[in-house]
Amino acid sequence: MAQPYNRIYNFSAGPSTLPVPVLEQARDEMLNFGGTGMGVMEMSHRSKAYEQIIKSAEADLRTLLSIPDNYKVLFLQGGASMQFSMVPMAFLRGGTADYVVTGAWGKKAVEAGNLEGNANVLWDGKSGAYSDIVELESLRFSQRAKYVHFTTNETIQGVEYHQDPSVSVPLVCDMSSDICSRPVDILKYDLIYAGAQKNMGPAGLTLVIVKDEFLDKVPDGMHPMFDYRLQAENESMYNTPPTFGIYICGLVTKYLLNTGGLEGALKRNREKAQVIYDAIDNSNGFFKPHAVQRARSLMNVTFTLPDEEKTKEFIKLTESKGLDGLKGHRSVGGCRASIYNAFPIEGCEVLAETMREFAAR
Ligand code: PMP
Q: What pairing do the DSSP bridges indicate for beta strands 9-10 and 323-324?
């Protein structure tokens, strides 16, 4: 079935598909937002109209994610990659923090952490080709660890935590590729960060959710833009925030609230992923899943084919059917189907059908 506006099934790992109703609303409001006579991109971030946009984006995110009052919500820039540095700059400071590395992004976080102290790799999934996770509860944390850092969903390898860990050390988490894809117990975390460009909006916006108690540990004398406390005191307006991204994030959040919240999102995400994992599991080993069962990501389904040639042939076939972005990351090879919240189940079904067709040849 054709998609609206001749859109194709976009399996991009991010930036990625956004909900069509959100794009339509943004289009309709592009030149004149709410009778202000100007578009959101063109308005002062200090204007009354914009104040309303950012305030309701935050309020709706608080409702959607059940963020308690003793947590701040920050709209920052610099991507999740900047958080790899900003976290240790504020909280590591020559000390030790434990890092759990379940894939490529966790490894990057360690590299940045080591510039500010001892980013101790407590567990590394490398020997298993990053196909599994480890229960954080099973690990012995370093004495006086400032925090433990992990990645809920490793976007490249397609391994995901499906439960919020309970640990006795401040928990810092990169939730870039699965934020808002399932209900989360925010209370388990001290700091969560996520680039917006997968489940929440366009690139250029980074969401940070941080507990007040943890925020109090930020020392004086930080560079202003890297100072979580200053950013919080200025309600994300220390400098010009990514105004358009926050606006879109607000629309996406409203859309999620109106479509069953995070329980609804999780249900849809499970159904979508199941369609593709079933096609893998029923292929008599032709398609091989990268992740072990318990760690299978609902956001990035990774799998390989018997060889490079068949992979190329298969990708070509998918492209001929209007399926875009399925080539896996070069470090894993094979294919990766990124199916974030806004990706339609019909696209998963077309992919599964194409997989069956190709394997049968
Ligand atoms: N962490 C994860 C889990 C990611 O998927 C990505 C981007 N794909 C990043 C960090 C880096 O994000 P950014 O490009 O926004 O800096």
A: parallel
How far is 150 from 79, CA to CA, in rounded Å? 17
Inform me whether the pLDDT recorded for 2 exceeds 80.
Answer: no
Residue with CA nearest ligand 1 atom 15:
79
* CA of residue 87 to ligand 1 center, whole Å: 15
Average pLDDT score over residue span 225-246: 98
Distance 23 CA to ligand 1 centre (A): 23
Sheet order of strands, 335-338 included: 288-289, 300-304, 335-338
Q: How far apart, in whole angstroms, are the C-alpha atoms of residue 156 and residue 223?
A: 32
Peptide bond into 289 cis (omega under 30): no
Per residue in 79-129, pLDDT (tens digit) is 999 999 999 999 999 999 999 999 999 999 999 999 999 999 999 999 999
The CA distance from 130 to 124, in Å, is: 8
0.85 exceeded by the pTM? Answer: yes
